[in-house]
Design a protein that fits this description.
112 residues, alpha+beta, two-stranded parallel sheet, 3 helices
Length: 112
C-alpha cells in the first residue's frame, strides 16, 4: 500500500505504451478504477497512447531483421525444455508476427 497523502498533496500515475489498446472495456474500467484508488479523487493520470501505424512499419517492429523478437519467443520453448523437461526441437519452429484485423493487434506465434 502507498503511504497516505498529506493534506493538499496530489498523486500522479503514469501508464506508458499502447497496452491499453489491447484491453477490453471491462479491463480498461478496472485499470482506471485502480488508478483512481492509487491517486485519490484529486489525482492525475498520464496515459501514453500512439496512433495506428501502417502495417509495413508495425509488423517489422514485432519481426525485426536482427531476430531479437524471434529469439525471445523461441526462448519459451528452451525454458520448457530446460525447466519442465520438455523435448521441443527448437530448430523445427519459427517466429511469425501476424496482424489480427478483428482485434486490431499484432499477434506473435511460434509455427512448427
Amino acid at each position: 500500500p502507498l503511504p497516505p497523502l498529506a493534506p493538499g498533496e496530489r498523486r500522479s500515475v503514469f501508464f506508458p505504451g499502447s497496452t491499453i489498446g489491447n484491453l477490453d472495456d471491462r479491463a480498461i474500467d478496472a485499470l482506471f478504477l485502480r488508478m483512481r484508488e492509487h491517486t485519490g479523487a484529486q489525482g492525475r493520470a498520464v496515459i501514453g497512447m500512439d496512433l495506428r501505424k501502417p502495417l509495413d512499419v508495425l509488423l517489422p517492429a514485432y519481426d525485426d531483421a536482427r531476430g531479437v523478437t524471434a529469439a525471445f519467443d523461441l526462448n519459451v520453448l528452451r525454458r520448457i525444455n530446460r525447466e519442465l523437461e520438455g523435448d521441443f526441437r527448437i530448430d523445427r519452429f519459427r517466429h511469425e508476427a501476424r496482424w489480427n484485423e478483428a482485434t486490431s493487434a499484432v499477434e506473435m506465434h511460434l509455427v512448427s
